[in-house]
Amino acid sequence: MIPAEHVLIFSILLFAIGLCGLCSRPHALRMLISIEIMISAAFINIVYFSGIHQNLEGPVFFLFLIALSAVSAVTGLSIFISAHQTRKSLNTEDSNLKW
Amino acid sequence: MNLDIMSHGVALLPYALMASIVAFAIGAIVLNDLMRAAFCLGAIWILSGLFFMVLGQEMLGVFQIIIYAGAVLSLLLFSVMLTDISEKISSLQSLPLLGFATAVSSGLVLVLIKFSSGITVSDAHQKAFYSIQDLGKSLVQNYAFPFEWISITLVAVMVSALTLARKDQNRDSR
Questions:
Q1: Do the Cβ atoms of B75 and A77 come closer than 8 Å?
Q2: What are the pLDDT digits (tens) for A78-89?
Q3: What letter does residue B123 receive in the DSSP assignment?
Q4: pLDDT tens-digit series, residues A35-66
Q5: How far is CA B113 from the centre of its chain?
Q6: ipTM of this complex prediction, to 2 decimal places
Q7: CA A98 to chain centre
């Protein structure tokens, strides 16, 4: 069994890479890619700890979360395509998005 | 001797997968070509699925590869192709945001250092502790409502994505 510390360090590293990508690139699709990397880090933790605790809730919730994550990706991509049709750019610096 | 090499290889496999995933994640962030970055993300998803299999969760690994590396990656690639892929290269968006990212990452490492001694890992071996029948029964019996809710959400998102992404004739004629 891989020690939990190693998996946690790995997932934190992956999450940090995604966070740095999210904060450093202004392109919307690049931001989505960074968010997906961060979600992958969370999934790795879920799967590892559900294996440790040996209960069925972990895999079931992983299935729900993977469906919801795919839903968020699909919604984001369709919004980006729609934004590209109107603005001809996906650079977030060019758009005046309000919080 | 051969068995020794084999056992070392099996023990090193998860670490090799972890290193590859981190390398592809860096590639997805650093590469300027969006298409290559999307392929790096696909490699991360496939390797994550293999990592789940190594952890003994074969079924979740298969789901990860089918849903992410199959469906979502193809959608992402089509989105990259449909939109302008010539990204304006600006490596740093703003230094405060990068500082925030570094601070959050450092905080996570500190939390890990503080609490990692309390994590106890059982000697449970890496093997599946459930079958697909157990998973199916649990989904239908114990989690029927969330399961149906997810189905409705998927249908709603499919319709809304179609509505959002379709070409607006009125907008084009303007």
A1: yes
A2: 888 888 888 777
A3: -
A4: 999 999 999 999 998 888 888 888 899 999 99
A5: 25
A6: 0.91
A7: 22
Alpha-carbon distance B115 to A5, whole Å?
10
Alpha carbon distance B19, B151 (integer Å): 36
Q: For the whole model, what pTM was predicted?
A: 0.85
Cα–Cα distances in angstroms (integers) from residue B105 to residues A2, A6, A12, A13, B155, in the given order: 22, 16, 7, 8, 36
**Nearest residue on chain B to A84, alpha-carbon basis:** B83
* B101 within 8 A of A23, measured Cβ to Cβ: yes
DSSP state of A88: S
CA distance B170 to B172: 5
Q: Chain A neighbours among B 22-61 (CB < 8 Å)?
A: 22, 25-26, 28-29, 34, 37-38, 41, 44-45, 48, 51-52, 55-57, 59-60
Task: Residue B66: name the closest of B86, B85, B46 by CA.
Answer: B46
For chain A, give the mean pLDDT.
86
Distance CA B153, CA A21 (A): 29
Residue in A4, A18, A74 nearest the CB of B75:
A74
- pLDDT, tens digit, 9 for 90 and up, residues B151-161: 999 999 999 98
- Chain A residues close to B63, C-beta within 8 Å: 62-63, 66
Helix, coil or strand: residue B104: helix
Contact B101 A85 (CB under 8 A): no
Q: Is 60 exceeded by the pLDDT of residue A70?
A: yes
